[in-house]
Amino acid sequence: MAQPQNPIAADPVVQTDNPTLEQLNSFFENDRFASEAARCRIVEGRRGFSVVEMEVGEVHLNAQGHVMGGAIFTLADYALAVASVTGRGPCVNASSSIQFLSSPKSPKLIATGRVVREGNRLSFYEVEVVDGDGRPVAKMEVTAYSIK
Q: Could you write out the DSSP letters of every residue in 23-74?
């Protein structure tokens, strides 16, 4: 008896190294926390690379009026997801370390994810977060695990 095909494995985002923005948005539409609650938006994505941004609103602020670290982490983790899944298939953040470098001075945050080394099961990524003026906000190093 034939095994049922995994719909994720057949998705164009998983199958191609350079999907369209429409394909990326369709694939990640169920990442509702990142896209709806945190209001992250995919700008670009291809195998091993991504750009994701967030317009900072009141929902992202902590009690002191600064952007909450969890909002910055969510943006960085979403950038990792786009860079690590595209062209490879299901992947999860197995371990990450984030350094918060400065408080953003503009209302936009931009995260750029890049693969450092791609392995069969474990891959290593760096995600840089800057504000809309290019000022460094955070840097995250990630070990991602490929689920095959």
A: HHHHHGGG-HIIIIIS-EEEEEEETTEEEEEEE--GGGB-TTSSBPHHHHHH
